[in-house]
Amino acid sequence: MGDDSSRSAVPATFPRIWAVIAAIPAGTVLSYGEVARRAGLPRRARLVAQALRAVPDAMPLPWHRVLRSDGRIAFPADSLGFREQCNRLRSEGVEVSATGRVRLAAAAMSLDELLWRP
DNA sequence: TCGATGACACATT
DNA sequence: AAATGTGCCATCG
Question: Which pLDDT tens digit goes with each residue over A104-117?
């Protein structure tokens, strides 16, 4: 019956990936690999990338908190997406180098600071 | 079915 | 820090 599998064609893994990304606290960042791992999809970082491309515009997702494993923004430095991600991260207090590099440890630490003090 | 592609990861150099 | 090569996996023509 209602076989809509030929119409929407949204992989079952996407919603899980989106949920993980939505759960990333402001001011912190995660790598594609980490997101995949937390979504129960180890070694599928590239699938995370595809899931991000497929995010409906109506869905507000903190996509800017997802970086490469080396702490770099995945977009080319001259692209619009790069600048947008840069701005969003800095708005949350994350330090981003001119080349788009972020210290993952430092970003994770910013949350610790909040919890560290009483 | 096969080959090319991609908002990646990892090891080496 | 940056460049290169290899591995992975779903999607597409």
Answer: 877 765 666 566 54
A2 lies in a domain? no
Domain of A15: which CATH number?
1.10.10.10
Give A88: exposed, middle or buried? Use CB within 10 Å, 0-12, 13-18, 19+: middle
Assess whether A18 (CB) lies less than 7 A from strand B: no
Question: A79: Cβ under 7 Å from strand B?
Answer: no
Nucleotides of B under 7 A from a protein CB: 6-10
**How many angstroms separate the CA of A40 from the C1' of C10?**
16
Identify the CA nearest to A71 among candidates A36, A100, A28, A34: A100
Domain assignment of residue A90, given as a range:
7-116
Rg, chain A, Cα only:
15
Q: pLDDT per residue over A52-91, tens digit each?
A: 999 988 899 999 999 999 999 999 888 899 999 999 999 9
In a domain, A38, yes or no: yes
